[in-house]
Amino acid sequence: MTATLSRPAGLRPHPVLGHLPELRRDALGFLRHARAAYGDVFPIRFGRNEVLVVAEPAAAREVLVTKAASFRKGRGIQKMEPFLGTGLLTAEGETWRLHRRLMQPAFHRAALEGMAGDIVGAAAPLLARLEGAARSGEEVDVGSEMLHVALRAVAAVLFGTGLDDRELAVVERELPPLLDRTSARIRSLVEWDLPTPARRREQAAGEALDAIVDRIIRERRASGEGGGDLLGMLLAARDEDGGGGLTDAELRDEVMTLFLAGHETTATLLTFLLLSLSRHPEVRAEVQAEVRAALGDHTPTAADLRGLPLLNACIQETLRLYPPAWLVPRQATAPVTVAGVEVPEGGNVSVNIFLIQRHARFWPQPDAFRPERWLEGGRTPEAFLPFGAGARMCIGNHLALMEAGLIAALVLRDFDLEVPGGGPTGLVAGVTLKPDGAVRGQVRAASAVQE
């Protein structure tokens, strides 16, 4: 027998806005209260659309793995299509299966590890700015710096040297407002497409980015040279059944998807990592000792990351506490049950990664930063889903971890970064999870720290 999707009195929604006021005021606080009061699977309303929130690993597995064929991407991700096109994040059905099959070899760990040098090179401007801040005593905006370095890293991995400094400056200028506009579109209850200044700005930003990506793809096709970067691998990819590769339009969509998924999520992970280590100086000191002993003054490689267990544990614990992709939206394509609850065709389900990864049943002291749990066998794999699960698990998970590991190792080896007062304590749950204020840090060079 299936349960009825009831609406507890404590979750009584506004007749038009639903729970939108509470979600906009403090989404995570509201959802944590609802889970504590009503259990791990409960309904909320986003405007007039009802959403079943899933905050338990077994139910999440139903949605993402065992019954995945009964779901498509949720409406929030569907609203990204005007910007992203039909890349892996937004594509469905046979289009998604073909693209995933073509792209998977390029994202194998062994293929990606050859790009570690590009990531290290992309971090050079960051290290130079931190060195300058250490000399001058000027504070740095950690979040902004991590956005810059993550964007440069993903550009280097995607294009190698194909993106010149002028074009990289255009990407750095145009991508953030385009992402902000996309985030606003996702949150909006009403679909407007009027020629407002914001809409014209969005179109201009998209056209500027498209022009750069189109040029690189066109020139790489004409040269016949693949290259060792991700774009080269994707140009060379052929279907195992003898079919062709990706068209230029399909490549554009995948590149824009990788820009989105490959830089903001890594940047927020690094920001939260450095913030957490600043709040736990004893852990930071241990990580720095580990990194400095393992690396010395040589350029780090992907192989070096395997010899940094405490740094890797800190990254995993940061991903647990602050998953950048904090929820996974799905829409039922046929009637289906989740945790015994009936979901009609067209019904919306939200797998809440944040709540699952802070569930006290699976994580002792769930809100505490305890990287040692990853070294003591205390982790719970089924309750750790920062990259999703099932066939649609994030294809770039190894790349994200390698980028974060290399950049963090370089920063922690060379600098001591303090966030006075502990930094912002609140969280903003938008398209990605972020601190609710600027993270400003004071920097000292390693030589000064060790004197």
Keywords:
single chain; 451 residues; alpha+beta; disordered N terminus; Cytochrome p450; 19 helices
Describe this protein's structure:
- By secondary structure, this protein is of the alpha+beta class.
- It has one domain (9-450): Orthogonal Bundle (Cytochrome p450).
- It is 53% helix and 11% strand.
- It has 19 helices and 12 strands.
- The protein has helices at residues 20-38, 57-66, 75-78, 81-84, 93-103, 109-113, 116-122, 124-136, 142-159, 165-187, 197-223, 230-236, 248-279, 281-295, 302-305, 309-321, 353-356, 397-414, 446-450, and strands at 41-46, 49-54, 71-73, 140-141, 327-332, 336-338, 341-343, 348-352, 415-418, 427-429, 433-435, 440-445.
- Strands 1-2-8-5-3 form a 5-stranded mixed sheet. Strands 4-12-9 form a 3-stranded antiparallel sheet. Strands 6-7 form a two-stranded antiparallel ribbon.
- The longest helix is centred in the middle third of the chain and has 32 residues, at 248-279.
- The relative contact order is 0.16.
- The model is unreliable at 1-10 (pLDDT under 50).
- Keywords: Heme, Iron, Metal-binding, Monooxygenase, Oxidoreductase.
- This is Cytochrome P450.
